[in-house]
Write a structure and sequence with these properties.
Layout (H helix, E strand, L loop, with lengths): L6 E7 L4 E7 L5 E7 L5 E7 L2 E7 L3 E7 L2
Antiparallel strand pairs: 1-2, 2-3, 3-6, 4-5
Length: 69
């Protein structure tokens, strides 16, 4: 989750229906907030500092994850 003291470091809109924001948390971890406004499953690729992972966003969903550095 986004805790007090977190700083937004990135925002991306892959499509009109899919958005992502990345936040640097005070402990050095990254918080990702992902939103899929569409009625369909949305496969996405997240790339950060040379690392890459594939995620599936369910329809009409908001998802979050924490990445350790």
């Amino acid at each position: 989750s986004i805790v007090p003291g977190s700083v937004r470091i990135a925002h991306s809109r892959a499509t009109e229906q899919v958005e992502a924001t990345a936040w640097k948390r005070p402990d050095g971890t990254l918080a990702l907030m992902l939103m899929n406004k569409s009625e369909a499953i949305a496969p996405i690729c997240v790339r950060i500092d040379g690392m890459e992972t594939e995620l599936i966003l369910y329809p009409k969903s908001v998802s979050s994850c924490i990445l350790k550095s």
